[in-house]
Amino acid sequence: MRRERPGRKNPYKTGMISGKQPLNAPTRKRSQRSPECCAREHFPPRKKKGKFLLVAEKIILYYIFLIFYSMSLHSAPSIVWELSGEPCETRDQALSGIKNNTEAFIICSRGDEFLQATCNSPENYHCEISFAGGKDRELYMTPKDLDYSRLHDLFSRYAAGEDLSHLKKEWTLDAHKPGYITAIVVVLAIIAVLAVIIFSS
């Protein structure tokens, strides 16, 4: 039988053998974690990443839409109709207003360019077209008056955005004097100003 020396503790009773726990000490329970829990700690959830990518794609598509929309606005200038100096909503309203009306004129503006016409007599319409050529503006006139059907077709094609630059070879250039219709507009404006002055005095 093994004897114990006086003054020396039995390491087997105290359980202090090289830092080991006592035999009768309660064992510590290790926290049991599932593999899914460990995976969530090391890798972020995919839902947040998916939402971020979805928002980024929407922002990119929005800016692409704005770019193409602005390009379409620059490439297709707006069409403005005028009947005797008053704005018109539709093409038919402007063309019906000038039909056989010698006191009326119509203007179809397309950006910096325009097409205008006046009625000289029933079924005889004088037309002028303006092309923006840098700082100088070129104005061309019809060598002969047009009938109403040709006038309607010409203005319809112009409003649809058709290129009518071939008229430079067919019509007469009027670059040294103001256009016939432009002169009429100026005269009517002067008469209106004089009328306002007379009635106000």
From TrEMBL:
<feature type="compositionally biased region" description="Basic residues">
    <location>
        <begin position="1"/>
        <end position="11"/>
    </location>
</feature>
<keyword id="KW-0472">Membrane</keyword>
<keyword id="KW-1133">Transmembrane helix</keyword>
<keyword id="KW-0812">Transmembrane</keyword>
<feature type="transmembrane region" description="Helical">
    <location>
        <begin position="52"/>
        <end position="71"/>
    </location>
</feature>
<protein>
    <submittedName>
        <fullName>Uncharacterized protein</fullName>
    </submittedName>
</protein>
<feature type="transmembrane region" description="Helical">
    <location>
        <begin position="179"/>
        <end position="199"/>
    </location>
</feature>
<feature type="region of interest" description="Disordered">
    <location>
        <begin position="1"/>
        <end position="42"/>
    </location>
</feature>
